[in-house]
Structures are given as C-alpha cells and as structure tokens.
Write a structure and sequence with these properties.
The chain is of the alpha/beta class. The protein has 2 domains: 144 residues, Rossmann fold, CATH 3.40.50.1860; 120 residues, Rossmann fold (3-Layer(aba) Sandwich). Helix content is 45%, strand content 18%. It has a 6-stranded parallel beta sheet with strand order 4-3-1-2-11-12, sandwiched between helices. Strands 8-6-9-10 form a 4-stranded parallel beta sheet, with helices on both faces. Strands 5-7 form a two-stranded parallel sheet. Helix 5 packs across helix 7, helix 5 packs across helix 11 and helix 9 runs parallel beside helix 10. The mean pLDDT is 92.
Amino acid sequence: MAVGIFDSGLGGLTVLEAAARALPEVPFVYFGDNAHTPYGVRDPDDVYALTTAGASRLFEAGCDLVILACNTASAVALRRMQENWVPRDKRVLGVFVPMIEALTERQWGDNSPPREVAVKHVALFATPATVRSRAFQRELAFRAIGVDVEAQACGGVVDAIEDGDMILAEALVRSHVDALKRKMPEPQAAVLGCTHYPIVEDTFQDALGAGVEVYSQPRLVAASLSDYLQRHPSMYGTGDTAMFLTTGDARRVSDQATRFLRRKIEFVAA
C-alpha cells in the first residue's frame, strides 16, 4: 500500500512528514533527485525527463500513486506527464491544487465556474521555473476571478537550504519579500510555492507581517492526499516497505535529512 513522494531534493520531506502524520499506516517511499537539484533553474524538457525518471523508480518500488512534492515539477512537467506518459493504472498528482482550493475555499472536486473570492491580492513566492510557467495563475483562474497575483522568483533559497546555510537562506527570503512588496505593498495572502520554503516559513511570515496569511503546502497536501485515498482506495500501491531513495550521495543526503527532520533518516542509492 505504498505511496510515492517525489522531490528534486530535500524540500519534499516537509510534505512527507505531514503526510506520515495524517496517514500513519501508509509506508511512504521518498525519492530525492539530489544529484540534479535545484530544478528551478532547469529548462522544461530537462525537468520533464528527470521527473519521469523519478516517478518510474517509484512505480518500481510498488507505488501506484506518486505525489510530485516539487513545485517546479508540478508546474512544468505534471500536465505533460498526465496527458502523454502516466500508465493507465497509475496516478501522478501535484501540489498546487490543494493550496489553491484552500485559498479559494472550494471543496475537492468542485467543478463549478470560477467565482469571486475574499482574497484579492496574493503574493506567490516560488522558483524561477515555477514563476515562468504561470501554472499557479492558470490553476487559480479555473476556480477564482478577480484575484491579483504578484509572483516573486526566489533565486538562491533552495540552494542555501540544500547546503544547510540557513543564515543565507533567511537573508535571501527577506530580500525577496522586500522585492515583492515593492511591486505589491499590501498582499492579503502569501503562497509558498516550493516545498523547501516551509523550512523558513517563520522568516517569510516575519518579513511579510502578521496581517498576511501564509499558505504553506505540507498540511494542505497531506489533507488532500488523505481525502483522495479515501475516495480512491485502489490507488494504494503494492509496496509494503517505507524507504528513502536518492540520486545523490546517500550518506551526505542522510545527514542533511536528519538535520532537517531532527530524527535519523537513512537514504539509499536510487
């Protein structure tokens, strides 16, 4: 009954932790493509090729359902994968939709026309590739009208987090928030469009101010995953072993993951 979680590096561990709390009976298989992180500076064909390779490995591990915890992969590769690549008996889902549903206060599967929502000014913080894709704006337009989205590409933040340099990561966050505020002085809500960013969520909140509601993905994705599996129990995979896979140096990645999650994590070569 394994479920796969894919990320370009370590950021998806934030989703894994939330999902494991919501579904303690499910063995999760995590795939971190640490050898090729970050995806946010790569071209779309490269992201697609790397993401399909990672998803294939998770299928091999007995996962019929794979969550793309990487926002860049969700933005750039997911639609193409769903239309042209995913086998009939498998599913690959992204992380944008649960967050947008929360932002627009729509229930899962609500296919009614887009409508006015309470939040009118949204700041989106994401990787350069996610910002370029405009995938967030496209998905939002299916559900809401009259929402102004100002996107800020947060170059360097993922690299700093992956390197364990939290002082640099926090400094970059404050710089990117300042840049966003020059374009949108008073956002009502902020979307953290990268699963690495919850690691520095407190810094985003402090820089934005207490009056801005910050939407972070792990809890929202975990809740949506739990709901999805209740409605589609056939998507529990045949795998029965939880594991952590990486394309990078397994020892180094294990040490980084242990530091992030504050518990012993052992990655093996993918």
